Amino acid sequence: MKLKTTLLIAALTSMTAHAEINISGFASVNGGKVLSGTGAPQYGIEPSFLADYPIVSTYTEDFSFSPESLIGLQVTGDLGNGLSVTGQIVARGANDFDAEFEWAYISYELNDSWTLQAGKKRLPLFYYSDFYDVGYAYVWMRPPADNYTWQIFNYEGVNLLYNGSIGDWGLSANIYTGKEDDTENKLLSDFFFRAPTREIWEDILGGVVNLSHDWLEIRLTHMRYTNKRFIDGEPSMWNGKDERDGKFYGLAVNADFGNFFILSELNRLELDSDFDTYMISVGYRFDEITPYIMYSDYEQSGDGDVEKHDTTAVGVRWNFHPSAAFKVQYDRVKDDSFDFAVAGDSKAITFGVDVVF
């Protein structure tokens, strides 16, 4: 573990005499393989299914449990009077199960509605961002990779949370600011550029609004940031500049009618080009068994169109235990990228068990 991991463990342990300690966890044991695929031979990529972009969770024609299996532990120390400390450790098969702190922050409840937080947290770009690693929390094997594709997923900074209501509508909101400096970004280093790549997102400023009433939930999000990048130590240049500004917009609309549900998410990133993604999924609950289908799409538009791919998935979830679910999913990926294939077409099967404790 890194030094900061050891220090935070020591800090949390030292609080035992002064705070109420709550420990919870989650785990996924998932396996799968590519049934068929084209790969991208011009880049030395064998037939592959890229299940998770940020951590380069990749299945090949050899069956494996490594790409998506993980275990996480969350420790919260309640110091009283509205002050608490939270740390979350995650060990991923895609990273040889090296355990790292992915969340480490303090919270202070200003009153019944407002909470101030500071530290390292998940960047709340997407509907499932805050609980992305907790497979038990959603119906599929994973949120669709076509949507959840960006290389940065954590940030260090401060945020202000609000929970309340407007009439009959529940309302929650989050305003956040900070930066992330990933000295060797896994997605860009290992997959896209095949060279050590430092990815920096600074001057991050964003907001999230979530509205819910009866069967309907609506989530709106917007974020601005400045991007810098170094490949093999050399700065990337965009139109003669060593930085570029990005704007992210997101909309999620979910409808749950008891047994039948519809889930959707639409996102756009405005950078050098426009990057558009969307997902729609429907399912039906038969007691403990929930079959579902999902379609997701990613398209980059603008000068020199280079990337376009979509995924069709069908699967079933079985809640065989109050704290565990078995899932199996078939994914078909079509890679219609213009200048290069990201990972090529593929058909893959994955299955696994998600638990919370």
TrEMBL record:
GO terms for molecular function: porin activity. GO terms for cellular component: membrane. This is Porin domain-containing protein. Pfam families: Porin_4. Keywords: Signal. Residues 1-19 form the signal peptide. SUPFAM superfamilies: Porins. Residues 8-353 form the Porin domain. InterPro entries: Gram_neg_porin_domain, Porin_dom_sf. The lineage of its organism: Bacteria, Pseudomonadati, Pseudomonadota, Gammaproteobacteria, Alteromonadales.
